[in-house]
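User: Assemble these into one structure.

Assistant: Restating your components, then the assembled model:
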Amino acid sequence: MPELPEVETVVRGLQARIVGQRLHSVVARRGDMLECLGTDPGRGWQVTAVRRRGKMILVDLTRSEVLSVHLGMSGQLSVEPRSRPLADHTHVVGELEGGIELRYVDPRRFGRVQLARRPLLEAGVRWRALGPEPLGLGAVALERILAARTTAIKAALLDQHAVAGLGNIYVDEILHASGIHPSLEANRLRPAEIDALVENIQRILLDAIAAGGSTIRDYRNAEGGSGSFQSRHRVYGRAGQGCLRCGETLRKILVAGRGTHFCPRCQPRRRRRPRPRRRSSKRAT
DNA sequence: TCTAACCTGATC
DNA sequence: GATCAGGTTAGA
């Protein structure tokens, strides 16, 4: 569910509410949903900062420890009064001062909560393999990343090792705005297309953050509220409807195993290179 | 490099 | 009952 704009919105909500607060303990209501790396969930800390890296939420704690949360598909992280009954699928609860709690809810359990010594977390391959942040990513850097990949551009942009934070909704929106077919091989983008991508990545992500992210189904911010960017999706979830730019009927196909929305006219397929003329029809595959 | 699998719940 | 979902990744 949550991509960079949604995660950023949660982070901003948490910054406003829990930075400087005392976190007494972290309690796992399901043992397998909290992983402790070199620390003890009952020690107590002060929350010093809340940050985002890709789609990960990082709650920085005193003593160089950190609570890291990846929301997976259906995760929600919110601050609620202790008096409120726990929602179904509440797996981890952080007990804060002043009668409030940080609650992690995740029906599908694709998400992940770790309490770790920061150096241990940051030494992990999963952390170190993350690609650069898309906000502030320049054309030169993106060109280098894409040149090394022969997969579909959609798959490349979804790959967190390439760029960290994009997901299915925003990749579809970005490719549509850039006029690039999602199946085009990443290393075949032209310079002008890379420039368009860079520009649209910034613009769309910033607009989506300003709108508080997209709520299709599960996504909620740290206060339990919805985002509104879904009303401005131009292709995602609009298959069968008219393209807002050219009127052509939008299509939905499968690329990189993900439902992919695009406009056949604005994002034309580009053939792999005119086949060299051969008199004989021997196939060289 | 790609698919299947991990889960539950909503919708067809 | 079958299918699909905003993510990731272990295996083939």
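Residues 281-285 of chain A have pLDDT under 50 and may be disordered.
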